Amino acid sequence: MNSKPRLSTYWVTCADGLETLLQEEMEGLGIQNIERLPGRLIFQGNLENAYRVCMWSRLASRVLMPIHTHEIEFSHDARDVAEELYEGAISFDWSLIFAPQSTFAIRLHVERDIKVNTQFATLRAKDGVVDSFMEAVGKRPSIDTKQPEITMFILAGKTEHTYCLDLSGDSLHKRGYRRFMTDAPIKENLAAAILHKAKLAEKNPDIILDPMCGSGTFIIESLFILTDRAPGLVRRFGFNGWNGHNHELWMSIKAEAAERHAAALEKQLPKFYAFDADWEAVKATKQNIIAAGFESILDQIQIEERTLADWPNFENEGKVSFVVTNPPYGERLGEKASNKALYLGLSALLQKHFPNQSAAVIASQVEQADVLAFNDPQILRLMNGKLPIYIRFGTVKPAPVSKPFLEEWQPRQFEEIEGAMEFANRLTKNMQNLKKWAVKEGIYCLRLYDADLPDFNVAVDLYGDRLHVQEYAPPKQIDPEKAKRRFNLALLAIRSVTGLGRDAIFIKTRARQEGKTQYTKQSTASKRFIVQEGKAKILVNLTDYLDTGLFLDHRQMRLRIAAEAKGKHVLNLYSYTSTASLHAALGGAASTTSVDLSNTYLNWSKENFVLNGLTVDHPDEQHQFFASDCFEWLKEGHEQYELIFIDPPTFSNSKKFYGTFDVQRDHLSLLKRAMNRLTTDGTLYFSNNYRGFEMDEEILAFYDVQEISNETIGPDFKRNTKIHRAWKISHPQNEQN
What do the Gene Ontology cellular component annotations say (predicted)? Predict the structure, then answer.
């Protein structure tokens, strides 16, 4: 048997990707000559070095002391790894390491390409340790897999097996403060690594914000760093039951750590902000901060239930700020598309509130991190358990100055376009007439031209700084080649008048849509952009479908709903991409409920909400989305709403709905059901695009009905006042008395 344990070599393990940062940290603790391997650092040092890593390392997982190496003989053809581990364990006198009265456990790690039943191999290694004790002292230690006094770590390799004493005991990422958990939390040492990479201690920030704080890990790890709090100050370690433990040395290191922390607490701390949309997360954060020992400085930490859309005005003028967060990616949110919308929304908020300040944001995919508007961005890939994560670091770009396109536009000089000058002049005139209104009202999306001239049967819509051009299909008697030449002339004129290039102009042909073709994809290019309308940021798709996701003719109705929604429960039937619901939510609605038969549009709806910092699929169900036939949904529920908006299609025979819907035929039944869900003092807005529509006499007789079509049609649609019709419907006053 070997008589002397090898004590001069130490292994420090870490999560994949942390090796370089961990080496920097260890060098800061005075440790030199470090060998770096995947997931493990090796150094030659003394016991004090190992103790200091246990006490001070914020990034390491375990500190291991190799004690015994068992070389493998390859005299046999088939390896029996379990028996090799037993032979290696029994060949060493473990009574030199710990007493038989101590409990112990074994953690086995097997190198790749070694085939073995790890559970049975671990059991055989334990047998070897126990039999070694019986041979040496005639007594055997007990096994405790939950709270052992001694933990042994065995690395089963191809040429040798190494038996280590785990000085850390439990993993070092467990600081002891995480009493309350939320979904998919980040490990403490990974959070600390992100703060280390961001150079938090060097920034000396005045403000630290985590807007999606979960269980508060980033806030607490920031407190640890800025108050010089050793992560190992109050936790138990695996060396306490080791025969070679130097209690006096350890207590001196612990006393030094306590003194450093006490001194740092006297210094000025930054203001911390910890927000989350989930009240349970807010409670968990507060309880974990107290458990970490920071109850005395809770007045420095503003912990509140807030969505991204509900950020306060930070008093950060002239102050150094740092934002760090772990958004609800992957399993916590679900849809990858919604994730991207979340990062776009977060980026816009950072640009607004924290321009030129530092930030670090976790993503589950690089594509999500790529949308963050950072200067000189850096990326770090880590493993949070089995999940890869990407951390984007950088300085937040200031928000670009956003102005309506028409504010900067001026009539342009261009060469005469033979055969299209009448169209060019009309488009120029329309843009001049709409400019003052659009600039004054902050209108970014509007119709510039709508088949004003019979020879140019197109609609030209402006979405931000891009154009959506719809060619109405020409009558059959028109020569297709002639129609094509005229349309190409129109496109040339549009580019000349607006000054926009080909890449900013998107073209579709609008024919009458019937039956199942009305929702058919026009393209698979997915040219999606964010546009502004009122307070809302909205995703529009200018290629895939005939409709873009935003009906421009209903702009005034959406803005009206936004103005009336505060404190109300709002229902939106045939919600499409739920832009009316979004306006209501941003207007302060108590809740919104959106119902549509299409999951595609409801997922799009959720993206719109997430883009604006609003929470979806949340336990409090403030904003709900239902994939259902509106008739059936109205029939099955009983909830009451103060504000209802219904904008049904003229005709529908969706394959998900048995039968057909005809707005003229079916609106009586639809409205009666909806009015049953309207509070006595509530308002229902009803609109549709069927030009020949006539309101049923029964509706006019039973309810207070006011046609408001003119009020809901903006100046850009005044030439086509029949684009839609709209009504305001309420219960008769005598029912309210």
Answer: cytoplasm
- The amino acid sitting at 318 is G
Clarify whether residues 91 and 21 are in a common domain: yes
Strand partners, 375: 395
Do 645 and 654 form a contact (C-beta atoms < 8 A)? no
Closest CA to 667 of 643, 706, 696: 696
Q: Is the pLDDT of residue 334 over 50?
A: no
Note whether 421 and 451 are within 8 A (CB).
Answer: no
Bridge partners, residue 41, by sequence: 12, 36
Residues 504, 623 within the same domain: no
Please list, residue by residue across 304-339, b when 16 or more beta carbons sit within 10 angstroms of its beta carbon and e when fewer do. Answer: eebbbbebeeeebeeeebbbbbbbbbbebbeeeebb
Residue 422 belongs to domain spanning: 401-511
* Pick from 313, 395, 328: nearest CA to 356: 395
Q: Give every strand in the sheet of 40-44, ordered side by side.
A: 34-37, 40-44, 9-13, 62-71, 160-166, 150-156, 103-110, 142-143
Same domain for 412 and 321, yes or no, is no
Mean of pLDDT values over 20-48: 95
The span from the CA of 210 to the CA of 38, in Å, is: 31
What is the 8-class DSSP label of residue 475?
P
Q: Classify strands 358-363 and 374-384 as parallel, antiparallel or unpaired.
A: unpaired
Encode pLDDT of 506-520 as tens digits: 998 765 544 444 444
